[in-house]
C-alpha cells in the first residue's frame, strides 16, 4: 500500500512550518500591496537574521549533547552582558592608540574584547550549569526554564550592586545601580553591521554581520564533525550505546552545555551591537524561548538540530517579527499585534514540537 506523497511531504516538513512559511510570504505580499518600502523591510529581516542567528545557534550543541532545548541560555547571556559592561567601563573603544589607527578599529577591538571576556565568564558559568543538568537527567528542559528565570531575577539584584562607575552605565543624578538600557554609541554600536556593508537600491546588506554569523556557524559545524563533536552527538542520541562504546556521557553533556552557554554569550553581544544598546534586568528573560522557537521553526526537534535548522528558522522567525508590526498596523491602525504574534508563534511552535516528541515517545 503506497502512501500519499503529498501527505508524506507535509508530515516530513511539518504543518506548522508550512503555515509559518505561508504567513511570511503573505506578509511580503501584503507589504507590497500596501505600497510599503518592501526593500527596507526585507533589509531589516536580513539584519535581524544576522543579529539573532548566534543566539539560535546556541541550541545546536545543547540538543546534540542530550540536554534538549536549552531554555536557560540566559546563563550565557549574563556573561556576555558583563563582558560588554566591562568594555564600556574601561572605555576600550576610545583608547588613543586604537583611535589613532581608526575609530572603526577601536570599535572592533572593543567588541572583540567584550566577546573574549563574555566567553571566559560563560565558560565557568556553563561548566557549573552543566554539572547541575547532569544531576537532573530526564527533566532538563523544565530545569533549564527555571534556571533561566532564576539567573535573571538574581542579576536584577546584582545590577544594582555592581561597582561600575562609568557615567554611561549608572543612573544619572547620583543614582545607584546600572541603567535599564545601556547605549553602545561610544563603544561598538553597529560595528559589525557597518563593516563592508553595501546597498542594492534601498536594500542594505550588513556584510560584516552576516560573515561573522556564518563564521560562527562554520566553527560549530567543524566542531560537530570532530571526534569530540561526534562523540557528543552519540552520547545525546543514545546514551546507553555511547557508554558501551567507552564514551563518557556526563563529560559530553558537560561539553555541550558549556558550548551552548558560550555561544549565548557571543550571541547577545552581536545582538546588542546590531540594535545599538544592551538591555539589562528583565530584557533577556524570554530570549531562550525565542531561540528555541526559531530553531524548531527551522526543522529541529528536541532530539536533533542542525546548522541549516538555525539559518532557516531564524530567518523565518525574525522575518515575521520584522514584517508583522508594519503590516499589522496597516490592517489595524489602532492596535499593535507584533507582540501578540511573537507570543503565538514562539509558544505555539514550542508546544507543537514538545507534543510531537511525547507522541513519538508513546509510539516507541
Automatic annotation (TrEMBL):
Cellular compartment(s): Cell membrane
Topology of the protein relative to the lipid bilayer: Multi-pass membrane protein
Pfam families: BPD_transp_2 (PF02653)
Gene Ontology MF terms: transmembrane transporter activity
Keyword Transmembrane: yes
An annotated GO cellular component: plasma membrane
InterPro entries in UniProt: ABC_transp_permease
Keyword Membrane annotated: yes
Record key words, sorted: Cell membrane, Membrane, Transmembrane, Transmembrane helix
Transmembrane residue ranges: 15-34, 55-88, 108-131, 143-162, 203-224, 254-274, 280-298, 310-328
UniProt-recorded name of the protein: ABC transporter permease
